[in-house]
Each structure stands twice: as C-alpha cells, then as structure tokens.
Amino acid sequence: MAHAAITLEIKDHIAHLVFNRPEAMNAMNRDMWREIPEAINAIDVDASARVIVISAAGKHFTAGMDLSVFGKPGPYKEAEIGRRRAHLRTDIMRMQECFTAFERARMPVIAAIQGGCIGAGVDMVTACDMRYATADAFFCIQEINIGLTADVGTLQRLPKLIAPGIARELSYTGRRMPAIEAKQCGLVNEVYATQAEMLAGVMTVAREIASKSPLAIAGTKEMLNYARDHSVADGLNHNATWQAGMFYSQDTKEAMAARTEKREPKFEDILPVKGSMVD
Known about the structure:
Layout: E1 6-11, E2 14-19, H1 30-46, E3 51-56, H2 68-71, H3 81-104, E4 109-113, E5 116-118, H4 120-125, E6 130-134, E7 138-140, H5 154-157, H6 164-173, E8 176-178, H7 179-184, E9 190-192, H8 195-210, H9 214-229, H10 232-246, H11 250-261
Parallel strand pairs: 2-3, 3-4, 4-6, 5-7, 6-9
Antiparallel strand pairs: 1-2, 7-8
C-alpha cells in the first residue's frame, strides 16, 4: 500500500514504520492521522511482524499536530451547536484511538525518538511499550502553551510511566524535558549520541524480541497492560485464565528443545486476524 506521510517495511519479523515529513518536522497532518493507525492495525491483523519500531526521518521525531488539521471547517459547521459539540467529542475519541491502537496491537511497539517530541508526539510515545532517544531529544506537552488541555492520551498514560508529580509539572508548565532527564525518570530506556546509534540499538532490542515466542510475547503484553489498569488481584486472576488457555502451546516445547540442542528456536507466527465466524 502506498503512503503519503509514512514509510513501512517488514523484514525479519520486524515492522519499521517511519514518519516521512521531515520538511514539516513530521507534524501530524491528516495523512499521518489516517495512515499511522491503519498501518498499525494492518500489521496486527497480518501478524507476520513480531515487533514494531516507530522512527522518523529528519531532525525531529514530530512537531505534534499540524495546524492544517485545525484549519479546515468540519462537515457540520451549520448544524445545531449541541450536535456540533457531540460530534467534536466523537472526533476527539477517534483521534485517541489512533494511539490506543499501539496498545491494542498484539506485538510490542518501540519508539525511537530524535529531536523534538512535541504535543501529540508525547501522546503517541506514551502509548508505546518502550521509548529510546538521542541526546538531543526533548519532550514537551505543548498543548498547555497554546491554551489547550492535552486530550489524546498524555494525561492518562504519562503519570503511569513516571512520577505523578513530574508528570503534573510537565503538564502544567509545558517545559521541555531533555532526553537525559527523561531517562532518569524512566520515560526512556536509553539515550544514544546519534540517531544512527539509536536505531542500531533499537533494532538489536527488536531482534531479541522477535526471536521469542510471539504467542508468549502477546500474552506478556496483554498481562502488563492489564496489570497497569487493574488491581494486583484482578491482574493475577486474568493471568491465570490466560495461562490456562495458552500454557500447552508448542512454543514451550520448542524453546526447551532448542536450549537442549544449543540452537536458536523456531516459532510459528501468531495467527492473522481473518477467517473468523463473521467474515
């Protein structure tokens, strides 16, 4: 499929999605808002990739929302005001789904961030499983600086990734958090000197993840996300139910055999999402 604002390559079970609007600092225009979730959902449905890497061309990861998204009148500019407001709420929730797709995908999503990660960029990367950055990277909850409340995921996810007080400071002040501080507070896993070094490091992590059982990875992601949003007791109960269904997969036997035979294990992909009873 041809894309206007991103590129996508799947190789050796790794999907690499690249924001490709460097001339606009990868500001998220309508094409990006459409193409990013479409690509993530397609990768999840196809299931040939076992990990997704998100990176960006150019100097900056993303400048956030492209102002052109706000510039075009909506389809209901003449409608009754209550109905317009209700439609806007639905529109915002659809935009939230663009990044919730990262969490819903069965495979881990890794963000590789250079330069600015601003506004909607923070919404996006907080929905990823892991974040890596270059030394020149910074994070900014830009919405507060232009009189808005961030509304696409930052305020819900960031306080579960870093200390709530720091999350509130960033949200209230709109200051830039440099990469080294982001690593110190746990927002990013590692900081690299250059983008090339970062991508090499991220791909090493991605290859390691791709070498594991994709069924076990999907279960691990499901459990981690569920535990984040539920009590320990609820998480343990959900984990037991999952394990009761998945414990006897062939992947465990293959992993044990490979270890005994001192070779790399070979796992089947998880099944594509097709051929269901309603298709």
